Amino acid sequence: MIRKFKKCDINDVMQIWENENIKTHKFIQEKYWKNNYNYVKEALPKAEIYVYIFGERIVGFIGLNKNYIEGIFVDENNQGKGIGTSLLNKAKENRNCLKLSVYKKNTNAISFYKKNGFEIINENIDNNTKEIEYTMIWNKNIM
């Protein structure tokens, strides 16, 4: 089940955010994610967030800022079950266009987004991590 984020969800969402960033982005020092934890915890509730509930637990979430996907995160034990796709489809429901940034070294995420209709439109360097990232876009009208 997908529902809108509630303030009481913050700790569960942040645990997934931290765990999955550290696990997925091994090419970025773990301290980067730990140093940004409090900033993200404060900023997160200002975004449009949907959580995926399995049983009675939050197992994934998507964060949006208008048409920009800040991130899709799924708990490691629940990946490969269509949860990320469900969250992405929720974001697509009332939008004609979505945009995101993804690290070039995060090949699994790039494949996921391409499979879901996104195209790479730009490449640049993330000033914070010095890693190459792609800008990807999805347009409903092109589908």
Unreliable stretches covering 5 or more consecutive residues: none
Order of helices and strands: EHHEEEHEHEE
| Order of neighbouring strands in the sheet with most strands | 1-2-3-4-5-7-6
Structural class, judged by helices and strands?
alpha+beta
**Rg result:** 15 Å
The CATH architecture = 3-Layer(aba) Sandwich
CATH homologous group name:
Gcn5-related N-acetyltransferase (GNAT)
Number of domains: 1
Strand content: 25-35%
The backbone outline, from C-alpha atoms, is globular
Distance between the termini: 26 Å
Oligomer: single chain
DSSP summary: helix tally = 4
Largest sheet: 7 strands, mixed
CATH class: Alpha Beta
User: What is the CATH topology classification name?
Assistant: Aminopeptidase
Mean pLDDT: 94
Tell me roughly what share of residues is in helical segments: 25-40%
Number of strands: 7
Secondary structure elements and their pairing?
Blueprint (H helix, E strand, L loop, with lengths): L1 E3 L5 H15 L5 H14 L4 E7 L2 E9 L2 E7 L8 H10 L4 E7 L3 H9 L3 E7 L6 E8 L4
Parallel strand pairs: 4-5
Antiparallel strand pairs: 1-2, 2-3, 3-4, 5-7, 6-7
How would you summarize what this structure contains?
The protein has 143 residues and is an alpha+beta fold.
